[in-house]
């Protein structure tokens, strides 16, 4: 019976942490996993997304059910590395925790999925069905990788999907969408002693942003699980001299959407409102820089039930089942699926540690998730 030793499990995670897959460097993670799969006779396929970015897909078994398992290979920047207690790219164990950029979000989950699949294959344990491993690129920057997988049909025949993002205590079955805009207001520069010789780019963009802020954030519609849509203007740049009328103002906005007030409706509202200002002489341009729809499923499935049991058994936790404001690759992977589709986000780590300095995953949780994932796959394919 093939079972990776604890030492091997830690070494493989440490190897992946050492790969600085901060934006555009996920290909090294993909190649590492591809070689690892090949060592155990599992063929995998690099799926190019852009010239430099790739996904990796590997599969074992055949026929239905098809279980989709997914994680992203990119990590966010380590920020100021001197703020870390140990090198963010050298996995370090302290007090039962494994520290390093990506230990939590989400290379531990990714290794759990990959090694579980290798063991199932090596031991010929999978009696029915297919397990499809989908490692994505660019999750932290708009989900380009998961969009590609959806477009190329990798989700068409999938019956269950789980994303191994950090959430060991709570099964997430629905989450908000995320929508980014860049708004540019163009004016005409002039000396501030004669502002009427120019056109101030700041004034219309302020009114525009406040009008939308009021409209969106006061909208009464609410999702039964996720609550209301929220909008925040997060960046505003304009002007460069106190006595010059600015010719350009640029704002960036993030909107967290719900199915009841979705991305398309928000985009239309931003465009219509710009049109209204432009008819009064402003020049406001609207650019959508990212659009990920919300995910809304019922959370009622044999997968969720079994996961609750396994969480109790291996982590000794009463697993909660909830919605979340954060987004995952499921925004793209679940395009076109209905609300009864069995989806969950469930993996080792701690949601609150994502993107932080001194990011860590609990070692006991990381190790327990190998058993959880194996028993989950075997339970769904009996
Ligand atoms: Zn993540």
Automatic annotation (TrEMBL):
Major enzyme class: hydrolase
Pfam families in UniProt: M20_dimer, Peptidase_M20
Pathway the protein takes part in: Amino-acid biosynthesis; L-lysine biosynthesis via DAP pathway; LL-2,6-diaminopimelate from (S)-tetrahydrodipicolinate (succinylase route): step 3/3
UniProtKB keywords: Amino-acid biosynthesis, Cobalt, Diaminopimelate biosynthesis, Hydrolase, Lysine biosynthesis, Metal-binding, Zinc
Family affiliation: Belongs to the peptidase M20A family.
Domain Peptidase M20 dimerisation residues, every copy: 173-280
Name used for this protein in its record: Probable succinyl-diaminopimelate desuccinylase
Any one Gene Ontology BP term: diaminopimelate biosynthetic process
EC number: 3.5.1.18
Cofactor(s) the protein needs: Co(2+); Zn(2+)
Reactions mediated catalytically: N-succinyl-(2S,6S)-2,6-diaminopimelate + H2O = (2S,6S)-2,6-diaminopimelate + succinate
Alphabetical list of InterPro entries matching this protein: ArgE/DapE, ArgE/DapE_CS, Bact_exopeptidase_dim_dom, Peptidase_M20, Peptidase_M20_dimer, Peptidase_M20A
Domain of life: Bacteria
GO MF terms, alphabetically ordered: metal ion binding; succinyl-diaminopimelate desuccinylase activity
Signal peptide: none
């Amino acid at each position: 019976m093939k079972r990776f030793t604890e030492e091997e499990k830690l070494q493989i995670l440490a190897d992946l942490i050492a790969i600085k897959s901060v934006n555009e460097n996920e290909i090294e993670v993909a190649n590492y996993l591809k070689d690892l799969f090949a060592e155990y006779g599992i063929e995998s396929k690099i799926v190019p997304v852009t010239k430099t970015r790739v996904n990796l897909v590997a599969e074992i078994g055949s026929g239905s059910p098809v279980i989709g398992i997914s994680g992203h290979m990119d990590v966010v920047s380590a920020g100021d590395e001197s703020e870390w207690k140990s090198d963010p790219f050298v996995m370090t164990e302290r007090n039962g925790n494994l520290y390093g950029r990506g230990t939590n979000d989400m290379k531990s989950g990714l290794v759990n999925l990959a090694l579980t699949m290798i063991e199932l294959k090596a031991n010929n344990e999978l009696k029915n069905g297919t397990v499809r491993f989908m490692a994505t690129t660019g999750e932290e920057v708009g989900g380009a990788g998961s969009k590609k997988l959806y477009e190329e049909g990798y989700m068409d025949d999938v019956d269950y999907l789980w994303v191994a993002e950090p959430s060991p205590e709570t099964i997430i079955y629905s989450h908000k969408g995320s929508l980014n805009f860049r708004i540019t207001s163009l004016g005409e520069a002039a000396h501030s002693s004669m502002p009427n010789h120019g056109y101030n780019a700041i004034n219309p963009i302020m009114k525009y942003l406040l009008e939308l802020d009021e409209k969106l954030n006061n909208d009464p519609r609410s999702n039964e699980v996720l609550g209301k849509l929220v909008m925040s203007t997060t960046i505003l740049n304009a002007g460069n001299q106190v006595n010059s009328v600015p010719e350009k103002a640029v704002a960036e906005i993030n909107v967290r959407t719900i199915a009841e007030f979705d991305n398309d409706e928000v985009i239309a509202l931003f465009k219509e409102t710009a049109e209204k200002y432009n008819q009064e002489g402003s020049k406001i341009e609207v650019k959508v820089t990212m659009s990920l729809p919300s995910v809304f499923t019922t959370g009622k499935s044999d997968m969720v039930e079994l996961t609750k049991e396994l969480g109790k058994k291996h982590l000794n936790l009463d697993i909660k089942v909830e919605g979340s404001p954060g987004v995952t690759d499921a925004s793209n992977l679940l395009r076109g699926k209905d609300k009864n589709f069995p989806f969950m986000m469930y993996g080792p780590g701690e949601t609150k540690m994502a993107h932080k300095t001194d990011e860590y995953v609990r070692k006991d949780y990381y190790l327990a998730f190998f058993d959880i994932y194996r028993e989950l796959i075997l339970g769904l394919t009996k």
